[in-house]
Amino acid sequence: MKKLTFFFFPFTILSWLPLDPTAINLADIRTGKWPMNLERDIDRRDTSYSLIFRDQHYEDGVVMDTLGFENLRQLKYLGQALDVLKKGHNGDIANFSNYSIKRADKRYEGVWYILRDKWGLTDFQQPEADIMCKTINGLK
User: Which domains does the chain have, with CATH numbers?
Assistant: First the structure.
């Protein structure tokens, strides 16, 4: 009977683990009509990150787009790109395999960034980029 108990014990522990992925909101970067937030997605042992934003290609309807990051290291590259672009000049671009960020200074509105991924587009200002950088740098 002892052998049978030790055989089923690991399966009992695994059954307590949640099967559904869990999404944790890390930061509401922007709210309102054009929301943007950063989430941590936990699925069993894997952790990924998502930047969720309203696609600006569609002004009439609400189409949310997700830029996914497989791990923390890829998300840190986004933070590093924003830091470099902050110190850069108008028109500087950070290109990645599945998205790009362009710095676009506006005369009376300050520094803006244009984020393009395969399917979507959004823009955000320097204070919103600072919120992203602060959140990303605080992750371990």
Answer: 17-137 (3.30.2450)
pLDDT digits (tens, 9 = 90+) for 12-55: 555 555 557 788 999 999 999 999 999 999 988 889 999 999 98
Question: pLDDT tens, 82-123?
Answer: 999 999 999 999 999 999 999 999 888 899 999 999 888 999
Closest CA to 140 of 73, 92, 79: 73
Cα dihedral across residues 98, 99, 100, 101: positive or negative: negative
CA distance 131 to 137: 10
**For residues 79 and 85, what is the distance between their CA atoms, to the nearest angstrom?**
10
